[in-house]
Design a protein that fits this description.
Blueprint (H helix, E strand, L loop, with lengths): L2 H9 L8 H5 L1 H12 L11 H11 L4 H14 L3 H4 L4 H4 L5
Helix pairs in contact: 4-5
Length: 97
């Protein structure tokens, strides 16, 4: 199992994403970080805050270039947190190799 897959097991499992109320506030919760660091250029190719959040979590275990490659099909399959919270860690593994 790759380090990216181990990270997905810990961070994207259904236990961690069950509370809908907590999930609905994640954009608001990230706002202080976005205000503080939002203008800094980073090497991840993201289109929105959801993508940035997922990519930063994954990048902690892999290179930015690798994350940019694996997240293209990932975000096509799971375009938002709403879809992501329904999936099991096992379902994510093929997309995160």
């Amino acid at each position: 199992m790759t380090s990216v897959n181990k990270t997905s097991d810990r961070l994207f499992n259904n236990q961690a994403l069950k509370n809908d109320q907590e999930m609905s506030n994640w954009v608001k919760d990230l706002e202080p970080l976005v205000k503080k660091y939002g203008k800094r250029k980073i090497p991840l190719d993201y289109k929105n805050r959801y993508q940035l959040l997922v990519m930063v979590v994954l990048a902690a275990q892999s290179s930015d270039n690798q994350i940019n490659k694996v997240t293209v099909p990932f975000f096509e399959t799971y375009p938002s947190m709403k879809e992501l919270k329904k999936v099991s860690a096992e379902d994510l593994h093929p997309l995160l190799k």
